[in-house]
Structures are given as C-alpha cells and as structure tokens.
Design goal:
Elements lengths: L1 E4 L4 H13 L5 E3 L10 H4 L9 E3 L5 E3 L1 H11 L11 H30 L10 H24 L10 H15 L5 H4 L1 H10 L7
Parallel strand pairs: 1-2
Antiparallel strand pairs: 1-3, 3-4
Helix pairs in contact: 1-3, 1-6, 4-5, 4-6, 5-8
Keywords: Transferase
Protein name: glutathione transferase
EC number: 2.5.1.18
Length: 203
C-alpha cells in the first residue's frame, strides 16, 4: 500500500491528520503537482481525477479523493473514534456540516486563490473576477462557522470529527492563502482553532 501525496496541500494534509488520529502508518510517495507529476500518463492511468492524494492498495486498485480515502481507512481499521459520527443522527450531522464546510468554505477558498493568483494558469483558465467573487463568498461564510462554534465545542456538534479537520485546513488556508484576518475577527473560531491546534495529529 502506498499513499501518493503532495504533503503541504490541504487535501493531503486532511488524510495525514486523519491517519494520525487513527494511529495508522502508510508509506508515502511525494508527488510534485506544481511540476505536473500528477499529469503524467503513468499517474493518470491509475488516477480517476489526476489529483493527490491517491491511495494505491496492495491489490493494485487505487482510490482518489481525500474523504474517500479517509472512509476506507476508518472502515479498515476498527476504532471507537467515530470520526464520521457515532450514531445515525451524528453521522447525518457530520455529513451535513462536512458538505457545508467543503462547498461553502474550503473549495470556494481554493477557487479564490487559484483564480486571483493564477497559480495554475499553465494548466487551467483563470478568471480573476471569479476569484474575487469567491473570496467574497468565503467572507460571507465565516459568520456561519462562527455562529456554529459559538454554540458547540466542535463544528458538527460536541465531538471531534473529520469536519474539524476540514474546517481547520479551511481556516488555515484563509489565513495563509487569502490573507483574511479570521482569528482577529472571529472569537469563537479563534478559540476552537487554538484548541484544535494542540492535538498531536495536527503537528
């Protein structure tokens, strides 16, 4: 089994943090996406989406998409962490909040950064105006997250889940990628972010 990754990217970090929470070690293969290692014929022949992370199983089968990979490990290594929820309601709440944080937060932030900076202009059409609109939508979403965290210890309720991993990466990307002063402007997010940062899996 091998995990192909570009370690610093949010999607790969999500899997890495998840694996640390589970206490699972997997051999890694570093891929340089900036140089286009993921666009080679060899990589694309094994990857559905041509992106990292990609998990290659001992059987030769491959899995793409970070959450799918996390689900695979969660099911393959029995545990009582309930990172996808502990009961039917909790599972539904985790799914709900995960989609909200991904679609309104993390993916929108990606669109803002990529279109404003033209970071991947060599392989995709960038529209700066769409980047600024996406950043505006990120700023409009932050109060939603602030409200939830002012009422709950964690994003999906009162237990740590994969949603907190994704939200942590989203906030970090806002700060470092989009230069949004999230921790200065949102107290509940700041307190949650500081507490989450203390978990060994995030270091």
């Amino acid at each position: 089994m091998k995990l192909y990754q570009t370690g610093a990217t949010p999607s790969c970090r999500r899997v890495s943090i998840f694996l640390k929470e589970l206490g699972v070690e997997v051999p890694r293969v570093e891929i340089n996406v900036r140089e286009g290692d993921n666009l080679t014929d060899e990589f694309l022949a094994r990857s559905v989406n041509g992106k990292v992370p990609m998990l290659e199983l001992a059987t030769g089968e491959t899995l793409c998409e970070s959450v799918a990979i996390c689900r695979y490990f969660d099911a393959s290594y029995p545990n009582d962490l309930h990172l996808f929820g502990a009961n039917p309601l909790a599972k539904a709440e985790v799914e709900m909040w995960h989609r909200v944080v991904e679609f309104q937060g993390l993916y929108t932030a990606f669109q803002a950064f990529r279109n404003i900076t033209g970071f991947y202009a060599d392989r995709e059409h960038c529209v700066e105006e769409w980047g600024h609109e996406s950043k505006k939508r990120v700023n409009e979403f932050l109060p939603v997250l602030e409200k939830q965290l002012s009422q709950h210890d964690f994003v999906a309720g009162n237990a740590f889940t994969i949603v907190d991993i994704t939200a942590f990466l989203f906030i970090g990307f806002c700060i470092n990628g989009l230069k949004i002063e999230v921790l200065e402007d949102y107290e509940a997010i700041r307190l949650w972010f500081e507490e989450i940062s203390k978990r060994p899996s995030f270091n």
